[in-house]
Q: What sequence folds into this?
């Protein structure tokens, strides 16, 4: 339901008849006052209605503070009952979701349920603490049976009648001839997947299972009820009291009230009052590294500090990484190519996270302290580094002297830290100037590498989000509407520029701080991927899942642009519960991995020139009747027998070394751009379709056109990163560049391309604003207008 709300409200708000920025800027110029004020009034009314729509959302379903406020007047027993009745039990190790994620997911293990309950009790002015003890095997099995209990349905995410009325009003204001049609579309959503899609997933899963079961290993060896029973013996609950002198009362939210006998006598081993130790938490760490060449040697250096957070704090939070070049102003046609070519120094930047930078860097092998780089004399590093490389290269007889000292590679490391400290590391290259063939031979010369392609890769945007559970309808709708309202100043700016082209206009710094521009489809993507569970089965995320959206920055008009979805890790547990028994189901994990691979691309732009990924490769293999080969970890030598690229073989071997099984077509398919394989965890059945870049990915290439006075941008450099550039170079006059950069913030997933974010060309042109110039008439509050 909210998927349609999100899509349609934004489509109507941006494409409605009365908003002139989606039409001809020439008409705005011909009758500035009338058209501009009419368009502004229409847009303001729509913004008001969208705020009203957001006000109708029941935030208690996904905001733990709102829920705690609602329950603050209740007695402790009622609060315990609310958690027990509304939060289902799901067994996994450690603190994964926290109070917020547990509420949003409406489920959690004993520790997460206890953390949520303790939070609400403390907010209600009671003392509360979390206690830990060990269950006997029969108690553990009894706890696991709680997963078989019926789950309470989530209430409506808001006042549905009021939402219908607001949607009808939005349609009316936008000039629709049938205002009720918008609400009808919202409350009658289409099916999540076509029958053909579901059949293809089932057919591929059956093929995979037949191949896996015929191979010489035991599938699903790590997902038995005995291991779950041992795991569930590490048990947590809450104790509370109404005063510092009162007795502690035990509360077991994971256990139905009628079945508490025996659990109230569990011996307490540990008590946690203010926080949960890190060794009990699932954590996620992100860090950026570069590789540098000095003559015949390669060395590795971090350029950001290791940024680590509990997975519970990251659920539903989008974070974007990119590199900010020191010269990035477009020309009058909105072309960034020349500026990027002239850029020498790059600053790694995160949006939505405070990550301490170790170093800036350049492609000549210099690492620069950020404090020094902020000084305009920092160019000395480029000159000195270049001179060193040229001189050393001449002595060494290098074909290209400047290649003797160079930055050869940059990558991100995503590390999933499990409770207890075990780590799983995933590397994702930003660029690599050494070919796979050269690395295999130990050849580190850079003769002939493509610096233009390297610079394009450097400004690529990586937006990642962790999911620790699920996303509620109300939360997804609220996030989308909140972002739309935060970015409304950009739309008003475009209208103002179109109606007053002779006036350079900027947004005031106060408003600028509200603007966001990261890709925002993760929550909807996770929601889609969670909908693949078949009836009669229970499946949930038992460790942090991580998905990365990659997007080229718009460099020049009419250029090819890359976008991709990378499912980095998708840990799940699945059970057959159809017979009122809890039966671990490896096949369901395989099926859901296939489902995710076949559906991840649905959030990418539909107007693609080329689309390729694991799903497309396996379609092509089936059409060509190419056999699939199962390779287990102790058969790694079989990789060398396949007709595959060096890079593909390297990533296949990496998966095998990590203990996975791979299922790979024995010959290349008609899709020449990519090869692919299924990566299957033999213990759990967790499956991901992998691409030849080593990513769990669906990728597309499409073309962005610059047309007349505006352009549609699907996704762009992060706003926070652009602001980092402004602060770094001490150039507040570059704010208009950031507006251009941040203009493509409204890309919506589910194959809906919003082409109405038309940035007026002047918004992309860097302009100096004389401070003494008088403001023009009708300059809106919050904007800075100069003649």
A:
């Amino acid at each position: 339901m909210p998927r349609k709300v999100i899509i349609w409200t934004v489509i109507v708000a941006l494409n409605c008849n009365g908003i002139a920025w989606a039409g001809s800027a020439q008409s705005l110029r011909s009758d500035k006052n009338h058209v501009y004020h009419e368009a502004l009034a229409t847009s303001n009314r729509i913004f008001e209605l969208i705020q009203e729509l957001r006000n109708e959302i029941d935030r208690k379903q996904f905001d733990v503070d709102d829920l705690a406020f609602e329950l603050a007047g209740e007695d402790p027993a009622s609060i315990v009952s609310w958690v027990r009745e509304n939060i289902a039990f799901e067994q996994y190790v450690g603190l994964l979701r926290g109070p917020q994620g547990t509420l949003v997911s409406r489920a959690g293990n004993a520790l997460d349920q206890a953390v949520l309950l303790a939070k609400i009790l403390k907010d209600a002015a009671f003392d509360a603490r979390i206690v830990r003890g060990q269950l006997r095997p029969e108690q553990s099995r009894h706890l696991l049976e709680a997963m078989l209990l019926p789950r309470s349905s989530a209430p409506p995410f808001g006042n549905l009648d009021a939402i219908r009325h607001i949607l009808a009003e939005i349609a009316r204001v936008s000039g629709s001839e049938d205002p009720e049609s918008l609400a009808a579309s919202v409350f009658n959503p289409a099916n999540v997947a076509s029958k053909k899609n579901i059949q293809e997933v089932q057919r591929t899963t059956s093929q995979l299972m037949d191949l896996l079961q015929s191979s010489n290993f035991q599938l699903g060896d790590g997902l038995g009820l005995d291991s779950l029973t041992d795991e569930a013996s590490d048990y947590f609950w809450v104790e509370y009291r109404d005063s510092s002198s009162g007795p502690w009362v035990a509360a077991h939210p994971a256990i139905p009230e009628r079945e508490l006998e025996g659990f109230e006598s569990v011996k307490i081993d540990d008590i946690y009052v203010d926080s949960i130790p890190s060794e009990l938490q699932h954590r996620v760490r992100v860090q950026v590294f570069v590789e540098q060449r000095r003559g015949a040697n390669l060395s590795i250096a971090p350029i950001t500090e290791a940024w680590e957070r509990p997975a519970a704090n990251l659920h539903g939070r989008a974070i974007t990484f990119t590199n900010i070049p020191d010269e990035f102003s477009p020309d009058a046609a909105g072309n960034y190519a020349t500026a990027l070519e002239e850029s020498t120094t790059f600053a790694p930047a995160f949006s939505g996270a405070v990550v301490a930078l170790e170093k800036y860097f350049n492609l000549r092998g210099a690492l620069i302290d950020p404090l020094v780089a902020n000084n305009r004399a920092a160019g000395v590093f480029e000159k000195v580094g270049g001179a060193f490389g040229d001189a050393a290269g001449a002595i060494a007889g290098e074909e290209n002297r400047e290649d003797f000292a160079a930055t050869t590679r940059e990558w991100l490391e995503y590390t999933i830290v499990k409770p207890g400290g075990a780590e799983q590391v995933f590397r994702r290259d930003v660029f690599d100037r050494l070919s796979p063939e050269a690395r295999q031979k130990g050849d580190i010369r850079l003769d002939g590498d493509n610096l233009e392609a390297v610079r394009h890769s450097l400004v690529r945007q990586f937006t990642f989000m962790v999911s620790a559970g699920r996303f509620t309808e109300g939360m997804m709708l609220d996030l989308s509407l909140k972002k739309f309202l935060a970015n409304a100043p950009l739309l008003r700016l475009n209208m103002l520029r179109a109606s007053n082209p002779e006036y350079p206009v900027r947004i005031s710094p106060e408003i600028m701080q509200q603007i966001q521009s990261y890709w925002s489809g993760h929550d909807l993507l996770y929601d889609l991927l969670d909908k693949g569970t078949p009836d009669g089965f229970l499946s949930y995320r038992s460790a942090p899942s991580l998905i990365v959206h990659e997007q080229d920055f718009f460099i020049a008009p009419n250029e090819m642009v890359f976008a991709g979805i990378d499912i980095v890790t998708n840990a799940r547990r699945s059970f057959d519960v159809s017979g009122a028994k809890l039966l671990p189901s490896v096949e369901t994990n395989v099926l859901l991995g296939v489902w995710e691979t076949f559906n991840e691309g649905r959030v990418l732009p539909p107007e693609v020139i080329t689309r390729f990924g694991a799903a497309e490769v396996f379609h092509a293999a089936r059409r060509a009747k190419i056999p699939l080969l199962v390779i287990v970890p102790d058969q790694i030598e079989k990789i060398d027998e396949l007709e595959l690229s060096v890079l593909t073989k390297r990533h296949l071997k990496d998966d095998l070394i990590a203990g996975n099984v791979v299922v790979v077509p024995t010959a290349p398919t008609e899709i020449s751009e990519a090869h692919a394989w299924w990566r299957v965890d033999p213990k759990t059945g967790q499956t991901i379709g992998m691409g030849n870049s080593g990513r769990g990915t669906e990728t597309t290439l499409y073309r962005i056109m610059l047309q007349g006075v505006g352009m549609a941008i699907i996704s762009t450099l992060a706003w926070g990163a652009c602001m980092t550039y402004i602060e770094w170079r001490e150039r507040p006059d570059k704010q208009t560049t950031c507006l251009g950069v941040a203009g493509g913030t409204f890309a919506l997933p589910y194959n809906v391309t919003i082409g109405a974010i038309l940035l007026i060309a002047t918004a992309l042109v860097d302009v100096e604003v004389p401070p003494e110039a008088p403001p023009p008439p009708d300059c809106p509050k919050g904007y800075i207008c100069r003649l």
